[in-house]
Amino acid sequence: MSTLDSSMVNVALPTIMETFDSTLAVTEWIVLIYLLTITVMLLFWGDMSRYLGQGTIYGRGLLLFAAGSLLCSLAPTIHLLIFFRFMQAVGASMMMAMGPALIRSAFPPEQLGHGLGQIGIATSLGLMTGPAVSGVLIRWSHWRAIFWVTVPVGVLVYLLGRRLLATIGRGTDRETGPEVRQRFDRTGAVLWTIAITLTILVTTGITSSCRTVNCASSSLIAGASLVLLLPWAILVRYESRISNPILPLPLFRKRFFAMAMLSGMLSFTVLFFVLILMPFFLTRVTRLTPDRVGYVMMAVPLCVFFVAPLAGRLHDRIGARIVATAGLACCLAAMLLLSRLQADSRPFAIALRLAFLGFGQAMFLAPNSAAALGGVAPEQSGITSSLLATARNMGMLLGTALAGLIFALAFSHLTGGLDVRDFTPGDMDAFLAALHLTFGFGAFLAALGLAASWLRGNNRGWNNGGQGD
Predict the structure, then answer these.
(1) Which of 193, 206, 393, 408 has its CA 20 to 30 A from that of 372?
(2) Is the dihedral of CA 122, 456, 322, 359 positive or negative?
(3) DSSP string covering 134-155
(4) What is the pLDDT, as a whole number, of residue 107?
């Protein structure tokens, strides 16, 4: 349900921009606030699961997500829409933080990769149907209708599953009492929120600053670097000195774990370079109708649907290093192909490139998640699950912010200060040049992710008698 919503909103961004006559910088906050909220809150819910229970958090998140969806459909202004997306994201963070941990409790250790691969089917179904559903609804109804879809589903699943979910994660390992609340790392949670929020605000704010200040000036670069690095340095220093950190730094000292998180974040950064900008390319340059945009964008999740279960089984047989790294190699090749798109590129040719990207993502995701979960002790599965989701959403967040930043700066420079909403057919060459530059940078990030995946090594993992490298 959460991936369905995400893919539908991405396709609807150009239409929402026209409805509210908003700039790209404001419009992308419909996506940014959703991802930012999820990224900030995932570790919080991972920690809270110790005494609230994984199933309880998941169920309440489901209901809150449905309520947020209903409010989004009624938003009269883009600023209220962004606020209601925040509410929706709180519910989504509760579901995402607990999802992999619930799967671990349902599958034996030797089938964990298979189980996560099966969840890849559900994830891809949401991603796959979202663009098509969104395109049809926008063409024949209104963009507000895309938020109606998840409301009845969320309420129905909550009512059917609340008794079952209430019993999950409430066993002997559940901690209760005021001592748990006292141990909760409130200061770390605040520092974590500040660090992530400032990172995104600075990244998105550079676009407007560069229109009035020379981007190459040393003062601007130094100031931005200080604002970005200082809160992260304070966070790491504080978390390393307390006994109950919200960010479990000892886990990151394990090479297999750190590389799984880094490569996972970079893979989703690359994916969202494409998911954010492709709808604008398909509507502005190739002039496709919204429903046809949805059909073309379906190529990514369609591949995930078929390949994810195979990737999970391959992990169970040969491990994550080869399978996941091969997947990122495919993502790198796909980004290089996408960086050569032209105005006369056929929809089928575009879809093939997107399918190749989806194939690479599917080959990477389940093995990478299984390797991280399988390499930690059972009592660390809740926080590991939330960290995996945090890495994914951090990647989505950075992908959205960086893609918007690079593309907007390039397009503005080539057109003498225009925003994407001011695009006319005469700006076609500038649009394509900005797109090629942005996707080229995405290919560079894919190469970094590939290297990180290979450097994970061959950890034996907790489930096979070891505790990782």
Answers:
(1) 193
(2) positive
(3) HHHHHHHS-TTHHHHTHHHHHH
(4) 76
Question: What is the reported pLDDT for 177?
Answer: 47
Residue tagged 């998911």 (tokens): 275
Helix extents (H) in 247-346:
249-252, 255-280, 290-297, 299-318, 320-338
Of 257, 238, 129, which is closest to residue 189 (Cα–Cα)?
A: 238
Handedness of CA 40, 43, 45, 47 (dihedral sign): negative
pLDDT at 467: 44
Q: Secondary structure of the chain: what % helix, strand, coil (to 5)?
A: 80, 0, 20
Short-list 135, 127, 411, 400, CA closest to 288: 135
Q: Is 64 left (phi over 0), alpha (psi -120 to 50) or beta?
A: alpha
Predicted pLDDT of residue 442: 94
Closest CA to 81 of 10, 27, 3, 6: 27
Token code pair at residue 44: 């919080």
Question: What burial class does residue 100 get, using C-beta atoms within 10 Å of its C-beta: 0-12 exposed, 13-18 middle, 19+ buried?
Answer: buried
Q: Can you point out the beta strands (E) in 57-111? A: none
What is the per-residue pLDDT for 334?
Answer: 95
- The pLDDT, as a whole number, for residue 332 is 96
Q: What is the dihedral of CA 70, 34, 331, 281, to 10 degrees?
A: 70
Amino acid identity for residue 169 in this structure:
G
Question: In 3D, which of 121, 23, 106 has the Cα closest to residue 58?
Answer: 106
DSSP 175: -
296-338 per-position pLDDT tens digit? 988 887 887 788 778 877 877 777 788 889 999 999 999 999 9
Task: Give the largest Cα separation in the chain, rounded.
Answer: 66
- pTM for the model stands at 0.74
Structure tokens at 62: 């489901």
Q: How many helices (H) and strands (E) would you count in the chain?
A: 19, 0
385 phi/psi in degrees, rounded to 5: -60, -45
- Could you report the per-residue pLDDT of 394-447, keeping only the tens digit for each? 888 788 888 888 898 888 888 887 877 778 888 899 999 999 999 999 999 999
Amino acid at 157: V
Residue with tokens 């790198």: 332
Q: How far apart are CA 30 and CA 102, in angstroms?
A: 29
Residues of the chain with pLDDT under 70: 47, 50-51, 112-113, 116-117, 120-121, 123-124, 127-128, 167-184, 203-227, 375-382, 458-469
Distance CA(143)–CA(9), nearest Å, equals: 9
Residue 26 CA to chain centroid, in angstroms?
Answer: 19
Nearest to 24 by CA among 208, 275, 213, 289: 208
